[in-house]
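Structure, all two chains, one model.
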Amino acid sequence: MSGIKEHNVAISTTQRKSVHKSKSSDWTVRKPKMSKLSLKENIWGYIFIAPWIIGFLGLTLGPLLFSLVTSFTDYNVTSQMNFTGFDNYKRMFTVDPLFWTSLYNTVYFVVFSVPLTTAGAVIVAMLLNQKMKGIKVFRTIYYLPAVLSGVAVYFLWMQLLSPSTGLVNTVLAWFGIDGPAWLFEPEWTKPALVMMKMWSVGGGMLLYLAVMQGVPKAMYEAAELDGAGSIRKFFHITLPMITPIIFFDMVTSTIGAFQIFQEAYVMTDSGEGGPSNSLLFYNLHMWNNAFEIFNMGYASAMAWVLFIIVMILTFLHFKFSKKWVYYESGDHK
Amino acid sequence: MKKWLLIVCAGLLALLSACSSGSADNTNAEGKVELDFWTFWGSETRRPMIEKLIEDFNNSQDEIVVKHTYVPWGDIWTKNLAAIAAGDPPDVIVNDIRTVKIRASNNQVEDISKWVDDDLKNSFYPHLWDAVTYKDKAYALPFTTDTRMLFYNKDAFREAGLDPEKPPRTWKELKEYSDKLTVKNEDGGYKQVGYYPNWGNFTTHDWMINADDGKGLMEGGEPTINTPAKKEAIQWMYDWKQELGSEAVQNMKAEFGNEQQDPFISGKVAMWAEIGTFYKQLEEFGGDLDYGVATMPAYNEDTKPWSTGGGFVMEIPKGAKNPEASMKFIKYLTDVEAQTYWGENNFDNIANKEATKQITENLDGKGAEIFQKSMESLEYTYLSITPPEYPEYENLVNPLIDDALNGKISVEEALDQAQKDVENSKQ
């Protein structure tokens, strides 16, 4: 009983409030001072979003600032935290050869994986955008790899890529190709990972499929009347119309590709970065510094350098997007 | 409604603050001191063993109660440091013997010198004692150690016309034997490889130390990587790889598995370097495999059969609440009784000299043979200690050696570069 009663009261209060609010908004110009009630409402508002605010301050902004400070020290988690100026940054660029190795490996991975997975997703989406019996089954099948994730997939691929008994090399052998040793050969480890990424284009495919279905039919009809074939229609209608999504996909997957870590950690012997350090990615090197030798200051500095690199790249992405991204609304926003 | 909200908010806050306030007092309701003991021994064989030792200790006196906390291998030392930083560490932890000096120099472990006398010190092997001291102070007590030995397949020896009681004693013999033991398939692949120096538990660093008459990659805290003998070791490994074919070597390695699929157990490789506990696996999965065990082959007739080893220590993390009680427990774990139990059941080499003697008297059969061999091997076992100034030297050296073994750069270049990179990385 009391619950219902309270509920009623609550409703009536909100009603009263909304009435009050509409009234007070008329007055705001002349009377900017907050009424007692809306002040109370504000406080309640803050209380309601407090879980997020506390989480953001305590778990995101706080640690972020802490790592910035740490990057100028020799912090080792337990005993020392002395200010060392730019020493960590200097060491990164002048002394540590593994920094450059890891940066090279990461950039290599980004340069190959981002365009290839984007193109792959567009092509698959185009194929699956046809009207055909059973197309939904195919869509599901192509999307499935995106549902699987993490360590299980890496182990699966380690078996697929096994040099003499793996499925990949077995298939290559049918065509008379003597496949490489993939994860055991320094030149082939990164291509192997790019190939693995290609397998899970399903996530991006879903986005493209959705936006392709949103392209107005009238455009295609008009083009057909003018005698355009399907290739022309793709390059002159479909592709321009989905550029905003391609742009979004490129930005997010570039950021994602820079963060590559688990693959190398799981798929190499004791997470060391593979043969000849060919899979020592930026984040893996950072992780080793932070949690293997507890050089937390140096690892924090590395994190901030990565942040700056990614920020510059994202900025460039946005800058060049004006040249090729088409927005239907026409205001380039 | 508002009251209800307030209660929830207040409740949440209370919960949060309860989480953050650690237990300040370590005595339990009965007035006993409670100790939290972290290990990574969670396997079916080891967990019951360590828990039996703890139970025996708890029953042996009525002042201290030890509780076992199992923390997985991959997490334990990171969590330990996080706990030290938070001021609420475990009371005792098992840790890596090679890095005690690093933790001591970083002030992450309690100095236990005041509870150490000469009797205690002399009950351990001297090279292990060296590893737990830093600037003449003791920071841990050694618990176990290990040493790599050469396991060889006697049946394969007989088939190849070799005497199964005469394992290879030098590099030259090792290569000769391996050539005889290597059998090819019709399709050109290997049915059985005699030996390959970069497989098993004795690889690049170990052969470099073996070649250099027991001198490590770090001597007196400074890098000694590009010595002529160490270069020769890598060159020797490179030549061996070329002879077998680098592709064949990669392909075979990719097929290696565990248990019955272990390359030595499944007969893919006839000679295999491993530590003494490999005996446990051979017992369980080896079936009726007839094998022998020998010390690692020496560089030549005039040098010693140098092997390498690691090990674990018991230590008290910095800031632990009851160091004195913790020390009592550590002393018990490293004393004759507990050490004998551990060694007999596990085939770990143990740190206590007296206990080692007892085990050799107690064991019989194959176990005794292996334990005996490991004692011989221990006499020439090099323990690589990571110097505090070069915590990441292995990360710098290993890829360059990989490059040399893959033929990307010469051995000369690789080790000279490694020496230089490590020198530069001094912290």
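The interface with chain A takes residues 1, 5, 9, 78, 81-82, 84-85, 106-108, 189, 247, 250-251, 253-255, 318, 391-392, 395-396, 398-399, 402-403, 406, 408, 421, 424-425, 427 of chain B (CB under 8 Å).
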